[in-house]
Amino acid sequence: MGFGKAFLLSLTAFVGINFIFTIIYYALSPGLEFGDLFDTIQGAPLMILYYLFGSIICTPFTIFNWTIAQPYLGNFDLAFLILGLGYLIAPIIAAILAGRFGESKGQCFGGWLLTAVISIVPVFIGVFLSATFQTILSTTYFWGSLDVILISSIISCVINIVFYGFFALLFSKIEYY
Fold first, then answer.
1. Per the CB 3.0–4.6 Å rule, which of 22, 35, 59, 147 could disulfide with 51?
2. Domain limits at 86?
3. What's the rounded mean pLDDT across residues 155-159?
């Protein structure tokens, strides 16, 4: 029962926080409006998958670059900072919830692992089924072909599993002395 709670609560928090920060990003961007969000979704309906699960394909060091290094280099944009913080906060909160609701260390880490693996699958579906989705990912992350997108996404997912998995283990109720 603890594994199911850890997985479902972390997945729900991950999806919800990603979507909330995407809406905040579109609300704060000076050149973007909510109409642009819905125009993007209307032009490529599978982009909703990226808005819900997109932070799993960003490695933590990329997010730290967006949120910490870029403002000091003179490229400060509040909306982009909020999006970067959302991409950082969503997996951390999801991993913490997996850690708190798992009944053992394995269930805590497994709940976060399954959340990350399940979150990468909709991104792959979007890449395979929508050429527009693939083009947007290629221009956003400077990934060229389908092979590069898939390999980079898998590597990012593995890095996220290991990096945020420590938060799940750290906040576990089970302590070994």
1. 22
2. 2-170
3. 95
User: What is the average per-residue pLDDT within 66-76?
Assistant: 79
Phi, psi for 16 (deg, rounded to 5)? -65, -45
In this structure, is residue 121 part of a structural domain? yes
Identify the pLDDT of residue 175: 67
Residue 90 domain-assigned (yes or no): yes
Asked if 79 contacts 25 with a C-beta cutoff of 8 angstroms, the reply is yes
Q: Taking the C-alpha atoms of 16, 49, 154 and 113 in order, what is their torsion angle to the nearest 10 degrees? A: 30
Tokens 């400077």 correspond to what residue? 142
Chain centre to alpha carbon of residue 153:
11
Is 175 inside any structural domain?
no
Q: Does this model's pTM top 0.90?
A: no
Asked if residue 118 is part of any domain, the answer here is yes
- pLDDT at position 69: 81
